[in-house]
Design a protein that fits this description.
The complex is a heterodimer of chains A (200) and B (380).
Chain A (H helix, E strand, L loop, with lengths): L2 H21 L3 H14 L12 E8 L2 E7 L4 E7 L4 H17 L25 E7 L2 E10 L15 E10 L4 E10 L6 H9 L1
Antiparallel strand pairs in A: 1-2, 2-3, 3-7, 4-5, 5-6, 6-7
Helix pairs in contact in A: 1-2, 1-4
Chain B lengths: L1 H22 L7 E5 L8 E5 L3 E5 L5 E6 L3 E4 L4 E6 L2 E5 L5 E6 L2 E7 L5 E11 L2 E11 L5 E6 L4 H10 L14 H13 L12 E7 L17 E6 L8 E5 L6 E6 L3 E9 L5 E7 L7 E8 L4 E9 L11 E4 L5 E4 L4 E5 L5 E6 L8 E5 L5 H4 L3
Antiparallel strand pairs in B: 1-24, 2-3, 2-25, 3-4, 5-6, 6-7, 7-8, 9-10, 10-11, 11-12, 13-14, 14-15, 15-16, 17-18, 18-19, 19-20, 21-22, 22-23, 23-24
The chains are: A alpha+beta (200), B mainly beta (380).
Amino acid sequence: MNKNLRISLYLLLAAFSINFAIAQKADTTFSRMLDSAMLSSAKISCKLKGDFKLTKQQDAPGTRKLEFKSITDFLVAKTWYNIDDSIALKMMADKKFLIENLFKTQPSPYPDAVSNQVECPLRLKPVPFDTIYSNLKVSSFRLYANDRYIYGECTDDVIIYTSAYILAYNIKEKTLVEIKYFTPKLKPVNIPEVLIRKVR
Amino acid sequence: MKTRIFLKFLLISFLFIISFHSIAQNPTRPTLLIYDSTRVCDGFIMWQDKTKCQLIDRNDNVLYNFPGNLCSFYDNEKKIVTHVAGNLVVYNKDLDVQWKTSTYIDHELQVTPDNKVLVLSVDYDSINHMWVRFDAIRCFDSTGKELYKWSTLAHCRYLLDFVMKDPNIFRYKIQGSHDPDSVLCKMAATLTGIDRNFQDRELFHMNSIQVIPTNESEKKDSVFRQGNILLSFCNYNDSLVTFLAIVNPVSYKILWYYVQKDAKQIHTPRMLPNGNILMYVNSDCRSEVDSSFIDEINPITKQVVWNYVERFPKVQMRCSHGSCQRLPNGNTLISNINGYIYEVTPDKKIVWKWHTNDTKHLYRANWYPKDKLNWLVNDE
């Protein structure tokens, strides 16, 4: 299986996890969704199709970073190859830790300080979901981003994109993939539909 | 009659809805109030609150959000150093964690010129069955290995002896034994009471570290030489008067100190290249003075050579927070508890002003030259 196909497969599977995270359906439903994803994997083409174009490729020892752009959407996929389970799982845990803490209130340097701070609205906080399916461990979030694809915004007026943030580790192939997918906030489709349509 | 009651009901309901709406409002973006592009020191601003650090440009475009409430950079390694949920964490712009070590950092996180990380962390110890909080300076190398820890608990005898020598610093007379544990325990109990939050039982509260850079004063007195450490001790629970100290970087013996009697707290004292020390000072809450101020002092004469006073509206908390930084063009960047960041010229004219309504935890603002953060902001 070539690398682009593997990325596409991960994308599809992770898309279902995002979908699940948003819909908060039961585990059994999710398993069925993954099963159908696996069954339909044969239909996945070897490259991202649609109006996506590869705009950037960065190769470094053990990693590859690809950026795809369409008229409205942006996708970044970074892959680490030949990575040990313990290192990959630690990387996933560390990245989750940072993403989640972008929205958490830390203790104040001055405990006596009072605040009228309005915390990040719940609807803008990350919606996480973790699962293991066969050889694939997936962590994913629904996030929002500003015009520079920066996470961590908590005000509607600067949020431009809805984003799927996906970490998927293939235990068998020792490959870790990180995908950030950005689509306009006002676009009247949900992320999984977009992802699935475009990777086929 | 019924109509009047109904109207009153409507009015009360309306007021209730309005007040509820004001409480439950969503965060709003900060407002850029003043921007004189001809006189500001061009560069980026990083501000920090309880949730994150945020890098903005002078037009208030958000360039990056950093997880963590204290942030700094490894100058040459394109890495971010920060405190996240009780951990010192180093990561790159893609959030790939380089190393992480458990330590609760309070107030300060500095990357030294030789790429070490100096932090102020919190230490607790039980003395006579009572928890007492102390601060510790911890130093890590660029791989996360801890090089040393200097704790006010371990050196309390030395610090107590030092502060008790000068009645300008120490407010209270110790009765009875001078045994450190006994003194500390008595102090903690006397000053804070058993029912207070245990975090308040603290004698030596530090809130700032600077490794002194090369400066003009070191030519006149070796106390101010490059590499010594400038510390700020706060009047945290009324035990001490706020003072600054310069210490030896190895022995941590106090070589110089400066008492600020009128201050509740001093923030971000920094030795400037001209040999003066710039500091943000919260006025003493017990006084009628309703202000904070920025002082630039000559450390040899201890005289104020430049001063800027902030006039606050009456707010509940005006006695904590704030920061200042002298910029390369001579302007001074100031942040305060009321959510303002602004830049003043040497003649005290405000040339850039930014305000956020959403935080009373605006802790610090730091200026960075654009070329230093190209790796973060541009697509490198």
